[in-house]
Write a structure and sequence with these properties.
heterodimer; A: six-stranded mixed β-sheet; six-stranded parallel β-sheet; 14 strands; B: six-stranded mixed β-sheet; six-stranded antiparallel β-sheet
Chain lengths: ~550, ~350
């Protein structure tokens, strides 16, 4: 684990945590267990997972099993330091009875002729694996992981030629069978995970779903945010995120949209506050270039003239902004209209080259360097460099004020701009699903054909000055901001806000919570219990009971 | 076009009434400073630019009158720290003069050349004023004035001697907007001396010094920006030498150097190095002013990038009269070079000039 904290502070924190959980959970002689992963080096991610896990263990008596580990390729792509020993100590302070070093466990089998032959023992008894993963699903996970760790937008034509691909494939087989053993034997009560993609996270989610184990997915933003997929509500038709998209959409319609009168003012306040840092939840943009100060059309028009001059645009003609995603970020994690994010971007650029009645601004993802080593964006930019109505540039070259004064239509697959722009009256087309895509704030298309049609008609409407976004969509978008930033952001002293950092401050703050705050009615326990008992897809700050229903 | 922007408002936005003329903006927190783009708002100043370019949008009621805008720019130690964070200069990179273009309503209006003087121990902060007039039509019915600080397109002959990303960290101390009464310019007026010309924003030769930014201070660089209106501008320059700028400030990367004690040590080292550099300059044989007739003078229009024809007449052993002709209004960058002596003196001293007199 990467932790630049003072050693003494960390020891004090561990001590406080272990006493707190020993007294609050007590001994759990149960044969059942709950699986938590700690594969991310940031302690804030681990704290969220462990807090939710222990809150569930208060409802369902179970032992705590932590899965962790470190691996070379991931280390190069993502981590700077990762210390399994630190994870072990943290896990034990939170009451873990077993800490499994996954990559050490699968290393032998992955190098052998039979990668699936992983033997796993827990509490002294061997685990019997459940049914294995389908070949096709496994291949998808291998490909996605390979693209991510090698930072490329799509897998090459013959990926098996690359030894790194073969290595990932062997590892994935071994990891999947380990997870089948761990989660598929009937003793696991839940899986708590910070990520749901790639091999060491995604395969656990897949094993859990096949075995009918509830999956709780914590989020890396805000205070404590989590989504959950329960076997009772899992249709099995979509990916994990696809299922959540549907459930969140239904939840939003039933619990939030119906309360719109009641929470309108709160939503307005969140919308107002969100102007200051619209980079959230993307934590890469902050400071003076992250705020939007525009309040009305006149101000926007004045700024637009200014920024259009910088980019060589005509302020009187519409501007369509296309937001390139981090190209190797979780390929296939949710429904996409195009096979890959790169296909979508390339084909959109090609479409743009012929649609010169509007001006096109192609924005690259600010963290692209972490996700692409092939110069994908630059290569597309070079192809269309001679078109004067198309501008390609890194996102941070333009401030939020600049961007928001120029954009008349946003185009993305699942980027967070698709919930931010509509909240301020700018329409968005989404060529894929995201957490909010079923909440009715953007135009969501499901396949290329409807995508081109939607683009065509939007461009036509922009030309003729028609309004592309309805008042209802704006209201829904603001309600979503409220839902995302407030209603589903649980504050508990055990999990300080993401911004409580550096590590020393964070640890001190949690240590104070453990030492000095009595645990009765801690919102964490209440909220997790509510989500768990009612099988709700999302952790909520307050009881958003069904209108008219008992809950 | 659709009326996008109408829905940017929320119930919690408070409408800002425009400020009446004469309007003086001295705080970024004022409600009439509607937008601070890539600029951190200040409490006692308008703001500090945080990106490659920065802008503020002010709400002013001009009542259809032409207005005169004066902007006070300022470079201090924090400017250099911010610049260093953005540029990450390598070892040996010097703190070069900053040429900053000031745009208003999307059009380049004036430029400023700001350079901190290397004193014996400390760096002397530099202030610059720019001034320009806006026609009655340029402020629209929206009552919005947008002022932007950005890099100027550098001519190739000056590019290596001026700072890249010049606007990063620069302070906008204050903005004054007044109604223009009577004729809009002072063409054909009596010649001005250097300090008053810089205070009036007609030239910029490194900026003014002193707590209130009113005095000229010694010469710092071999560049001058001419903002004065008119198809010909005559200026008399006094040529001299100045010590080369010190190494640009670099943020420490070692954790122990980032701590308080480390910072103190680093600061002492910086001061010592600066003092040593200055002493070296004073002791060196390169403190004699260059021969005015050996100097090469060039001028480039900063808006259209064309070279301007000019005539130079030596007016004394260290005085040089330069007459610049230009096709259109807009700032002109004037630079001196001493090709014969450049190599010998480069590490210690550099030629510099000061405006003695300006006539347009």
């Amino acid at each position: 684990m990467w932790l630049t904290a003072d050693k003494k502070a960390f020891e004090g924190f561990l001590d406080a945590a272990s006493v707190y959980w020993r007294k609050n959970l007590g001994a759990t002689p149960s044969q059942h267990y709950l699986v938590v992963e700690v594969f991310h080096q940031d302690i804030r991610v681990a704290l969220r997972n462990l807090a939710v896990a222990n809150a569930i263990r208060r409802i369902v008596p179970a032992q705590l099993v932590v899965v962790t580990g470190v691996e070379q390729m991931w280390h190069e792509a993502l981590w700077t330091e990762f210390d399994v020993q630190l994870v072990r100590r943290l896990a034990e302070a939170y009451g873990a009875s077993e800490v499994i070093d996954l990559y050490r466990l699968v290393e032998g089998p992955a190098r052998s002729a039979n990668p699936s032959g992983v033997r796993l023992e827990l509490f002294g008894r061997p685990l019997v694996p459940g049914p294995p993963i389908s070949e096709q699903t496994l291949a998808e996970f291998v490909s996605a992981t390979y693209c991510r760790v090698t930072k490329r937008p799509r897998a090459p034509e013959d990926p098996t030629a690359d030894p790194r691909y073969q290595r990932r494939q062997a590892l994935a087989q071994a990891i999947s069978s380990a997870y089948d053993a761990l989660l598929g034997n009937g003793s696991a009560v839940a899986l708590v995970t910070s990520h749901v993609d790639y091999d060491h996270w995604g395969l656990a989610v897949d094993s859990a779903r096949r075995a009918g184990v509830p999956v709780v997915h914590t989020q890396q933003t805000g205070c404590l945010k989590a989504y959950a997929l329960f076997p009772e509500t899992d249709t099995g038709k979509h990916t994990f995120r696809g299922e959540l998209t549907q459930q969140i959409g239904a939840f939003f319609a039933e619990r939030v949209w119906s309360r719109r009168e009641e929470v309108r003012r709160n939503a307005e306040l969140v919308a107002w506050r969100s102007k200051v840092n619209l980079g959230r939840p993307s934590w890469w943009r902050g400071g003076a270039s992250a705020s939007v100060d525009i309040n009305n059309s006149a101000e926007r028009a004045r700024l637009r003239t200014h920024f259009a001059a910088q980019l060589g645009f005509d302020p009187a003609r519409p501007v369509v902004a296309v937001f390139n995603h981090a190209v190797s970020d979780a390929p296939g994690t949710n429904h996409q209209s195009f096979p890959t994010l790169a296909d979508w971007f390339e084909q959109t650029a090609q479409f743009a080259s012929t649609a010169s009645q509007v001006q096109w601004l192609f924005q690259d993802h600010p963290s692209q360097f972490r996700y692409d080593s092939t110069g994908f964006f630059e290569s597309v930019a070079a192809r269309y460099g001679r078109h004067r109505h198309m501008v390609f540039q890194p996102s941070k070259d333009l401030s939020k004020n600049g961007l928001w004064s120029l954009v008349d239509l946003g185009v993305t697959v699942r980027g967070s701009v698709s919930n931010e722009l509509p909240a301020y009256g700018i329409p968005v087309i989404q060529a894929g699903w995201s957490e909010w895509s079923e909440c009715g704030l953007s135009t969501v298309v499901h396949d290329p054909e409807t995508y081109w049609k939607a683009l065509d008609s939007a461009i036509g409407a922009l030309g003729s000055g028609e309004e592309l976004i309805s008042a209802e969509q704006v209201e829904r978008a603001r309600l979503w901001l409220w839902f995302y930033r407030s209603a589903t952001d649980l504050f508990t002293p055990q999990v300080p806000q993401w911004e409580v950092w550096p590590a020393d401050y964070l640890l001190k703050s949690v240590q104070v919570a453990f030492r000095h705050i009595e645990s009765d009615a801690d919102p964490l326990f209440e909220a997790v219990e509510r989500m768990w008992n009612r099988r709700e897809p999302v952790l909520t700050r307050t009881d958003l009971h069904r209108p008219g229903g008992a809950w | 076009m659709t009326a996008t922007g109408a829905l940017f408002a929320t119930e919690f936005d408070e409408p800002a009434p425009p400020r009446e003329l004469p309007a003086v903006f001295t705080s970024g927190g004022d409600p009439e400073v509607l937008v601070a783009d890539q600029t951190a708002r200040g409490a006692a100043i308008v703001g500090r630019v945080q990106g490659a370019s920065g802008a503020v949008m002010l709400k002013i009621r001009t009542g259809g009158r032409p207005v005169r805008v004066r902007v006070n720019l300022h470079v201090d130690a924090a400017t250099q720290a911010a610049w260093s964070r953005a540029v990450i200069p390598g070892r040996g990179v010097r703190e070069l003069p900053r040429l900053i273009m000031v745009r208003a309503q999307g059009t380049a209006r004036a430029a400023a050349l700001l350079s901190r003087r290397r004193g014996r121990l400390r760096m002397v902060e530099a202030h610059a004023w720019v001034e320009f007039d806006l026609g009655a039509q340029e402020m629209g019915a929206d009552e919005l004035l947008i002022i932007e600080l950005a890099d100027a397109g550098l001519p190739p002959w000056a590019a290596s001697a001026l700072s890249p990303l010049a606007a990063v960290g620069v302070r906008i101390n204050r903005v004054e907007v007044t109604a223009v009464e009577g004729p809009a310019d002072n063409l054909g007026g009596p010649p001005l001396d250097g300090a008053s010309a810089q205070l009036a924003g007609l030239v910029s030769a490194g900026g003014l010094v002193g707590a209130r930014g009113r005095t000229e201070g010694p010469a710092r660089s071999r560049f001058v920006v001419l903002n004065a209106a008119g198809s010909t501008v005559r200026c008399r320059l006094r040529t001299t030498v100045a010590s080369v700028p010190p190494e640009a400030f670099r943020h420490p990367t070692q954790p122990w150097l980032r701590r308080q004690q480390g910072q103190t040590v680093l600061k002492a080292v910086r001061v010592a190095k600066r003092g040593a550099g200055y002493a070296l300059f004073e002791a060196s044989p390169f403190t004699r002013p260059p021969d005015a007739d050996r100097l090469v003078v060039r001028a480039t229009h900063l808006v259209d990038g064309t070279d301007c024809p000019l005539r130079t007449t030596p007016a004394g052993p260290d005085l040089l009269d330069v007459l610049v002709e230009r096709a259109g209004d807009g700032p002109v960058l004037l630079g001196l070079a001493d090709p014969t002596a450049e190599r010998a003196r480069r590490r210690v001293s550099d030629i510099a000039c000061q405006v003695v007199e300006l006539e347009s």
